[in-house]
Amino acid sequence: MEQLKKKLEEVIDFDIKEIDKIWGEDDIKTLEENYKLKLPQDYEFYLQHYGNDYIKEDYRFIPSLDLPKKIKQTQFEIDSIYGLYNDENKIDNKANYYKSILPTDLFPIADLPGKDLICIGKSDDKKNKIYIWFHEMEGENVFLVSDSFEGFIQDFKSIKVTKNNLDNVKLNLGDKLNALLNNASKKI
């Protein structure tokens, strides 16, 4: 678990993390019983020691497994990874919200912008593997992205994020609005 812990410490945005609580095994057992699943050890470790986390803005999930050609993206922004704490990323709330639309063999563990989800497989050949579920995609919309939770976390990579400042922002204004603003600025 040391490699997993090291990578989590690298990718979690601790500047906005408000929760500093370790969860007991009883909390995880209750979750498993409520949703009829058995979580893998690496994900249990995450839930116990982390959870309800946002990922640093300069990190993206870049799957090491090949995705079908119909998926045009090669990297994915992950908004948050759910946890046990009672806030907007509480795993119980998310699981209940999505239960009527997610396939029954998937359990949500994280989200992407636009309501797509990262899920863990619950049964059979999907068990403990990590999938992306695209909610608006026609036809097949569930794709394997990692063989384990730890593999999923290890596939986060730092990317270069261009931050906007006044030097690299260009506004295209209509002629009338531009003239109005120029006149207003001369009066100040």
How is this structure best described in words?
- This protein has 188 residues and is an alpha+beta fold.
- The protein has a single domain (2-187), classed as SMI1/KNR4-like (3-Layer(aba) Sandwich).
- Helices cover 30% and strands 16% of the residues.
- The chain has six helices and eight strands.
- Strands 1-3-4-5-6-7 form a six-stranded antiparallel beta sheet.
- The longest helix has 13 residues, at 175-187.
- It is globular, with a radius of gyration of 21 Å.
- The mean pLDDT is 88.
Which key features would you list for this structure?
single chain, 188 residues, alpha+beta, two-stranded antiparallel sheet, 8 strands, globular, SMI1-KNR4 cell-wall
Give the helices and strands, then pairings.
Elements: H1 2-11, H2 25-35, H3 41-49, E1 53-54, E2 59-61, E3 80-81, H4 91-98, E4 106-111, E5 117-121, E6 130-133, E7 142-146, H5 149-154, E8 156-158, H6 175-187
Antiparallel strand pairs: 1-3, 2-8, 3-4, 4-5, 5-6, 6-7
